[in-house]
Specification:
The protein is mainly β and 179 residues long. The chain has one domain. The protein is 0% helix and 48% strand. The strands form four sheets. Strands 7-8-9-1-15-14-13 form a seven-stranded antiparallel sheet, with no helix packed on it. A three-stranded antiparallel sheet has the order 2-11-12, with no helix packed on it. A three-stranded antiparallel sheet has the order 4-3-10, with no helix packed on it. A hairpin with a 2-residue loop joins strand 14 and strand 15. The chain is elongated, with a radius of gyration of 17 Å. The chain starts with a strand and ends with a strand. Pfam families: CXXC_Zn-b_euk (PF05907). Belongs to the UPF0587 family. This is CXXC motif containing zinc binding protein. Keywords: Metal-binding, Zinc.
């Protein structure tokens, strides 16, 4: 299957360095089997700190799972070197914030939750454990700072759009990469 990248486009005001925080950050995804097309009903998470051995000693992945419908073993790996923050200078441009190596599993939906962090541009104040699933999130030191989230399914096009307002508008997009 190759690589699938999560890209972010945002209009940042008074914040920078928006990023997932730590190796235990949970990327909540719904997965599709590349063999039979079965899509998981429940949200599954993968973390950088998790490593599961592949059958036959062919390495490891962040998640290995057997499809409930066709019984094929599939895997997905978070490519740690691709995790990037979204900064004020990236304003209103698409930027890849993470890539996944997909071997039989294809992410079809993403649900941001807790574990994001950002910094105030002028104050340098760090806001950690930002939960993007909450409809409204008061960040305290920045007056009027709120976080909104809602999402849309992938559909047939191998791309996803989810919108976030972080006193800004963000669009999260999974995009198929040619390898």
């Amino acid at each position: 299957m190759g690589k699938i990248a999560l890209q972010l486009k945002a209009t940042l005001e008074n914040v920078t360095n928006l990023r997932p925080l730590g190796e235990d950050f949970r990327w909540y995804l719904k997965m599709k089997c590349g063999n039979c097309g079965e899509i998981s009903e429940k949200w599954q998470y993968i973390r950088l700190m998790d490593s599961v051995a592949l059958k036959g000693g062919r390495g490891s992945a962040s998640m290995v799972q057997k499809c409930k419908l066709c019984a094929r073993e599939n895997s997905i790996e978070i490519l740690s070197s691709t995790i990037k923050s979204y900064n004020a200078e990236d304003n209103e441009k698409f930027k890849t914030i993470v890539e996944f190596e997909c071997r039989g599993l294809e992410p079809v939906d993403f649900q941001p939750q807790a574990g994001f962090a950002a910094e105030g541009v002028d104050s340098g104040t760090v806001f950690s454990d930002i939960n993007l699933q909450e409809k409204v999130r008061d960040l305290g030191a920045l007056q009027g700072a709120v976080v909104y989230w809602w999402g849309n399914p992938f559909g047939e096009q191998r791309s996803i759009q989810s919108c976030l307002h972080f006193f800004l508008l963000m669009i999260l997009v999974f995009k198929w990469l040619q390898v």
